[in-house]
From TrEMBL:
Species assigned in the record: Medicago truncatula (Barrel medic)
A molecular function GO annotation: hydroquinone glucosyltransferase activity
Family: Belongs to the UDP-glycosyltransferase family.
Main enzyme class: transferase
CDD domains to which the protein is assigned, alphabetical: GT1_Gtf-like
EC id: 2.4.1.218
Keyword annotations from UniProtKB, A to Z: Glycosyltransferase, Transferase
PANTHER family given in the database record: UDP-GLUCOSYLTRANSFERASE FAMILY PROTEIN, UDP-GLYCOSYLTRANSFERASE 72B1
The protein's name: Putative hydroquinone glucosyltransferase
Pfam families: UDPGT (PF00201)
Entry-linked InterPro entries: UDP_glucos_trans
Length: 470
């Protein structure tokens, strides 16, 4: 009988990271049915309903266990969301140790695959005699910049945002210091310290799996995988996206509305699983949508002074429509639809009525947009999203980036202008053509002879051989 190959997987305590590493696991066991994955999930507070319903979709050869949750209220006041995510893993390491110990006694895993936000768990791989891998859900550009940051940190004394020239990491589009990952914007912060520690850990693993593919990020992927680069082995295995999404409370209603619209006529507006805007910005966005005269489907959240502020409070019972400008809903009732908190994003982006996506540029949203051929307005909020916005608008030319005023606000006229550029005329045609090419390339990467599919098989073979040799 064929031996089963066991893999242990640790996600990060963030919805899109949990989904991404498990979608990869699903693909792995689907392509290689002799594999079995066991997943230990760090959590911050109680798991969201979207996470819970996603976990229901796992096949029987992927098992999962929640680690004891870390309560955000027990953490020091003012701890940033990034640090909270970090602590969700570090504070549960003793439980993870126990869980891996008992798993190893029953069915020893050959490899430990750890999400980039849970890198602290990598140390356990050696102890339990497993190969160690980082699963890196963001772009290859981000990874290339991460490695480059170790060098920059030694060579630069000022804040990166004060550097006069854009920064050029190997193979990447040049990125201005102010567009670097949010944790690198204040070098004296704890978030920056955690980030550097994490990147240093990445340097000593057996491999890094990135959710990207050659055709979308040729430069950074070639630089990362170049012999002599000094990096660990990098495996581009993307695009890994969900095949269907949690529909939320208003999913059916929103799809019914989309069925009634003209092909490619609707702009979908969403800021990921936890992105939030200030009240002033919500007002400007609402009026900007109205002024554009284009159809829209907008997922609204409560206002927050923190751009990732909705992540930990996404499920409260507040009436979110109260945050819209007076009269807006009445005036736009023929023009758009507003849904609170959550939309079935995959079903929305794959709908023929959707012709544009105003997105916060989370890498999952970007890949989902690419795989469904929808060009974007790139409106980054936090994390590495500013870097993604540069890749899309300046590198791949499939997105338009709004200008932000001195107070950090994108004004209504700018919003309306960009929506028109995205949805009509020559600019729209160019963006759609560029996106069409990328869509084709992304589909090819996952075909049987595609680059990413081959990479996954190469990894599976390596793990299988190791088990059979022992
Ligand atoms: N998502 C969704 N409905 C929503 C908002 C988000 O289904 O209303 C899903 C989306 O399809 C994507 C994920 O949540 O898979 C968001 O991931 P991304 O990396 O874009 O952003 P993050 O949530 O990490 O900021």
């Amino acid at each position: 009988m064929e031996k089963t190959i066991h893999i242990a997987v640790i996600p990060g305590a963030w919805y899109s990271h949990l989904v991404s590493i498990l979608e990869f696991s699903k693909l792995l066991v689907q392509l290689h049915p002799d594999f079995h994955v066991t997943c230990f999930i760090p959590t911050l507070g109680s798991p969201s309903s979207a996470s819970k319903s996603f976990l229901q979709t796992l096949p029987s050869n992927i098992g999962y266990t929640f680690l004891p949750p870390v309560n955000p209220n027990d953490l020091p006041q003012g701890t940033s969301v990034e640090c909270q995510i970090h602590l969700a893993t570090t504070l549960t390491l003793p439980y993870l140790h126990q869980a891996l110990n008992s798993l190893t006694l029953r069915t020893p895993p050959v490899a430990l695959v750890v999400d980039s936000l849970s890198a602290e768990a990598l140390d356990l791989a050696k102890e339990f005699n497993m190969l160690s891998y980082v699963y890196f859900p963001p772009a290859a550009t981000t990874l290339s910049f991460y490695f480059y940051l170790l060098k920059l940190d030694k060579e630069t004394s000022c804040e990166y945002r004060d550097l006069p020239e854009p920064i050029q990491a190997p193979g990447c589009v040049p990125i201005r210091g102010r567009d670097l990952v949010a944790q690198a914007q204040d070098r004296s912060s704890q978030s920056y310290k955690f980030l550097l520690q994490r990147i240093k850990r990445f340097c000593s693993v057996d491999g890094i799996l990135i959710n990207s593919f050659l055709e979308i990020e040729k430069g950074p992927i070639e630089a990362l995988t170049e012999e002599g680069s000094g990096n660990p082995a990098v495996y581009p295995i993307g695009p890994i996206i969900q095949t269907r999404t949690e529909s939320g409370n208003n999913g059916m209603e929103c799809l019914t509305w989309l069925h009634k619209q003209q092909p490619c006529s609707v702009l979908y507006v969403s800021f990921g699983s936890g992105g939030a805007l200030s009240q002033e910005q919500i007002d400007e966005l609402a009026i900007g949508l109205e002024l554009s005269n284009h159809k829209f489907l907008w997922v609204v959240r409560a206002p927050s002074s923190s751009a990732s502020g909705a992540y930990l409070s996404a499920e409260n019972d507040v009436d979110l429509l109260q945050f819209l400008p007076p009269g807006f809903l009445e005036r736009t009732k023929e023009q758009g639809m507003v849904i609170p908190s959550w939309a079935p994003q995959i079903e929305t982006l794959s709908h023929r009525s959707v012709g544009g996506f105003l997105s916060h540029c989370g890498w999952n949203s970007i890949l989902e947009s690419v795989m469904h051929g929808v060009p974007l307005i790139t409106w980054p909020l936090f994390g590495e999203q500013r870097m993604n916005a540069v890749v899309l608008s300046e590198g791949l030319k499939v997105g338009l980036r709004p200008r932000v005023n001195d107070n950090g606000i994108v004004e209504r006229e700018e919003i309306s202008k960009l929506i028109k550029g995205l949805m009509e005329g020559e600019e729209c045609e160019n963006l759609r053509n560029n996106m069409k090419e990328l869509k084709e390339a992304s589909t090819n990467a996952l075909k049987e002879d595609g680059s990413s599919r081959k990479t996954i098989s190469q990894l599976a073979l390596k793990w299988r051989n190791l088990v059979h040799e022992n």
